[in-house]
Structure formats: structure tokens, C-alpha cells
Amino acid sequence: MELYSLTAALLIPLGLGYVVLRFLPPGKNLPFLLSLALAFGLGTGMLTQWMLLLDIFSIRFSANTINMPLIVFLVFTGVGVWTLTRTRYPRKEPLPGQVMGTPQKQLRFSMKALFVVLCVVYVVVMTAYVFWRALSIPIESYDALVKISYKAKIFFFDRKIHLLRLPHNYYPLQVPLLQSWVSFVLGRWDDYWTKIFFPLYFSSYLIIQFYFLKTIADKYKALMGAGLLVSSNLFIFHATIAYMDFTIMYYNCVALLLMILWHRSETKEAWLMTAGLFSGMMTFVKSEGTVYLIIHVILLLVLLKQLKGVRLKEKISHFLRFIIPSAGVCSIFSLYKIIQGVAPFGHDRRMIWDFGMSSITRLPKVMAAYADDLFLSGNWSLLWFVFFFLIIFNRKKLCFYSRWLSLALGLFFLVYTGLALTTRSFAYIGGEYTELGLSRLILHFFPLIIPGIILAYDAESAPVQESYPGNG
Amino acid sequence: MNKNNLGHRVFSLVLGFLWIIFFYPLFKALRASSGQLSFENILRSFYLPQSNLQLGEISGINIHWYVYGVLSFFLIIGYYVKHHWLAGRALPPCFHPKTVVIAFLALVIAGQTANRLMSFGPEIRYYITKDKQQRYFSFFRGLHDFARQCKNVLPGAHNAEFISDLDFSEEVPGLFTYWCLSYYLYPIDIKDIHPQKSKDCVIVFSGNNPKSRLPRDSYEKIYLIGNQGLVAIKKQ
Question: For the whole prediction, is pTM greater than 0.90?
Fold first, then answer.
């Protein structure tokens, strides 16, 4: 019974995201599974922003106060979407870069068929395991209990956020709010069902990555990408525990993949606005999200610079289409914290400035910690090695997006190296607690190496976007 | 022979020399312990369940070092063949460095997956036979059960004074236990989330002779939980 009510309730965030996608041009005729996957990320983000808004207006949380207005909204907008779909849009439209209507070759029993079967079975088994483990083992790890689920329990029983009294009150609230929302739907606190979002984010990311890879390579490589992704032990493990790292990884990487789709698409603005929404929602998952948003802005500037034959005015307009939704969503929680009198990083010991001439001696330790984690841990199999090898091996033939993804990864590492050299977070990035912290930080951007590997492997045939579609 | 090709040939010899210096001790150590070496041991090294995702070791050396050793050996041989025997012409596709690297990746993933699937079975069997309370017990021992008994005695929201012999300056077990109890006891609040409300009960956890730990106050009821715990409801 609980499964039915929860499944029905999950239609609310899915519906919210779907409505937004349908009103934005890229969503009008996306593949259904991709629409659902994107809608899930957008919808859960919107749901938690809505809960934050309710608290700002001192409206107590309950299943009715949260869900009823959203259901009414969905009913009205649903009619609008249905009308629009019936009257305006053609049925099929390719994703940016995807070739439609090519005849599908009959798949014979061959190495390719065997490869497809193996990949599908592998991904399905791993996905089933993720769902089983997430829903069979209670919330048990320290951070999950202390920093996330304890807050969620307070929201559920007290029916409000009293930010000042919360432990780690400077932390963003998306994951605790989602967990409390599940409990409102169930009508009781449940240590198992409140983890349902993590395997759903896992599935959603797999689908988005698959469709993304299909636009830059063929479906076999897209499938291989899914297989490579689930071969990472840490990726699988984090999809089954209630940490925030998996969720921030989801928003971070989806936003960057959407930025590439925007750059390659002909209906640019909508992809960019969707990417902006994902970037903004990322800042409500974990404090690191705000720093990642700055990285996204830098990467967007690189993409804009690469657009040839586009006037500055138009580039500024593109920039605004990203920055308004992302900074808009980001500012809601920042303002909320300021109003409540909570410092941006609270009493986070890791962010205490710790820089002197001797700090430079930390650099070899940080580099050794990176190397140890990337190449000698059980987290990522050989994926990082393969990525670096292909990038170096094909360095002269790399397409723009390969270089852009490498730049993105470089910026993430640069941020953490900078933090390790200048703050006490060194303890987690090369210092005594490296084992506890570093892998989780790398997880935030790890999935980007999968398109990186696919693009670098196919360097000769990878998409080269040297011109502005329609103007080149 | 052109100058460029000679450079490649010299470079491949240098690479081979470096490989021997770097990886030879590794394989020498492996040879010394070959008695303990088995396919199963190698396979198990690729995935150790419950190990914070560390890799296994063979002769005290991380299994990935061996993989890199063999992989770089093949890459150097490919480079040598290309520039010595094929005079710079392209290698056949199956000997292409990209193919070799991807093949090794596939092998490592296969080893890891086989091992992972072998560990899934016992894990699934272990949990599937246990009810929810037993699953909590396997992680938190008596903590969850203590919180459950407290909540049976004190249904609903309460503000509790918490007394314990645990050392909260130590992260484990003191602080972790305290946080776990804070979480599992809620809506019984022991972390002062509601400072405006007066404390209406006392919870003693892990305290010898728990009754003697009660502050001087008048109590409506006192419930003992095990040997070292109690819940006392204050008279209003």
C-alpha cells in the first residue's frame, strides 16, 4: 500500500518537472524516458524550493499544505500542456546532433549483439542491486544520520524548518526536505523509504547520460558508457546510502551535459535555461554547489567564446538565460540564511583560512592523494587511467567538447587543490582524513569522464562543433 | 632509416629500460610469493566488500600496480614492434594501444564484477532473512532498541535531559552514539532543538546504577531499560 501511495506521490515532482520541460522548447518532443529523467531532477528541485517557500511564509508542512497546491497547479498546467501538444508541436524531433530516420540495421547474432546483451544485463543487475540495497538497509552512516536525516526528521515532526537550532544549519536542505516529504506522504517516519530518491537519481542519471552519449556517438557506445558508469564501485555504493554527494553529482553533471546539448542544438535557449535550473538546484544540495556554479559560469563563458559569428549582444543574452535561473534559485536559500542570521559556512572547521609559506609543502601530499585515489583505489576501476591515457594519446585530435570536459575536470581539481592549500580542508584532501573525504569529492564530477572517454576514443570521428549551428 | 624513426627506436628502448627498473621488483616479489598465488586470490583483490573500497594486495602490493605493469609492458612492446619491425606503419587494430587499454579495462571490470556478484549473494541472503529490527541491530547493536523502548514509554514529543557515562569528546563511540540516539529518539529531543520548552523527562543511557544518576527532582514514573538505562518522567 505504501509503495502505491509513494508511487502516486512521486508523480507530483515528476509532473512539475515535466510541465517545465514541456513549456521550454527542448521538451516538446524529447524521448519519453529522457523527459521523465530530466523531469525527475527538475521536479524534485522545485518541490524542495516550494517547501522552503512555504516555510518562509510560515506555513506549516503537511501532506496537504505541500501537495495540494501543487496538484491544483499540475491539473491546470496539465490542460495547457495537453492543448499545446495537440495543436502546435510535431511528433518527433531529434536531440541536438542526433540523426533521425536512419534505417536500423537488423541485429544479427554477432559480437555486437553479444555486447548489447552483456551491457544491458550488467546495467540491469546493477540497477536492481542499487534499488534493493537502498531500500533494504536503514540509514546507518554518520553523515547521513547527523547532517541529513536528523534534520529531515525534525522537519517531519515539527512541521517546519527552524534553521537556527538545526545542527550544521549552514548546509543546504534539498535532501533532508525530500526525505521529510516522503514521510509526509507516508504519514510516518520510515528509515527505508526515505532513501527512495537515491536509486531514482541513479536511474535518472543513467538515462540522461545514455541519451546524451547517443547524440555524440552511436547507441553501442552509449550503452558502453552506461556499463562503464556502473562499473564504478563508489558510484554504485553512494546510490544506496543517504549522503548528499550522489545528488550533487547528479545536478552538477546533468547541468554540464545540458550545456553541451545547448551548444550543439538549434533550440539553444531552452537547453541552456534547463542547464541553468539544474545548476541553481545544485546549490541547494550541498555547500560545494555554489562553488561549482562559478565553475559552470566559467565553462559557459568558454562555450560562448567558441561561438563564431555571433554578436556580443546575442552572447550576453545567452549568458543571461543561464545566469538568471541558476543565480535566481541559488539566491533563495542564500537570502533565507541571511534573513535567519546564519553565516554562509557556519562554523565549518574545514573552511577556516590556513595559509602560510609552508602551505606549499602540502602540494605533493595533495597530488599523491589524488593519484592514490584515482589510480589505486577500488572506487573507479581503471576509468581514470583510461581517460587520461586516451586524452594524452589522442591529444592532437581531440574535439572541442573533449577539451571542454577536460577543462571542467581540471577546474574541479583546481578548486580542491586551492582549498587544500589555503584552508583546513587539507585534512580531507591529502591530510589525515583523506580516506573519508576525497573520494566523495571526486564523485561529484567523476561521471564526466565517461563522455570524455567516449569522445577521446573516437577522436577521429567525434563531433566537431567549430561553428554556430545555423550560422556556420 | 630516417632520423625520426631512429628517435622512436631509441625511445622504445629507453621505455623498456624504465619498465624493467620500475616494474621488475614488483614481479620479483610476486614470484617470491607464488606459492600463495591463485586465480581466486587475484580475483578477490579487485573488490573487497566492507573495506571502504580499498583494493586487495598481492605480496603487499596493490593489485592495480600489477595491472599497470602488464598493461605498460604490452604498450611498450606495441611501440617497439611499430617502430622496429613495421618501420612506423600502423599496427593491426587489435594491437592498437587504444584497443589494448580498453581490453585491460574490460578485464579489470570483468574481474571486479565477478567478485562483486559473489559478494552480493551473501549480503542479500544475510539481510533478506532479517526483519527490520534485526537489521537495525546489525548496525547499531542495542542503540535502536533502546530508543524504541524509550519511545514506547514516552510517546509523542518531549524535551529530555540526557545523562550518560559516554565520553562525548571522542568521536567514536561517544559522539556517534549520542548522535544516533538523538536521531532515533526524535521527537524526544535530547539535543535542545526546542530551548523554549522545559525538560519534562530524564533519559539515562549507559550509566552504572542509573537510578543514582537521576537529578534531585520529583518523578511521576521511572522505567528501567536494561541494566544501564532508564526513563524518568518528571512531575509537572
Answer: yes
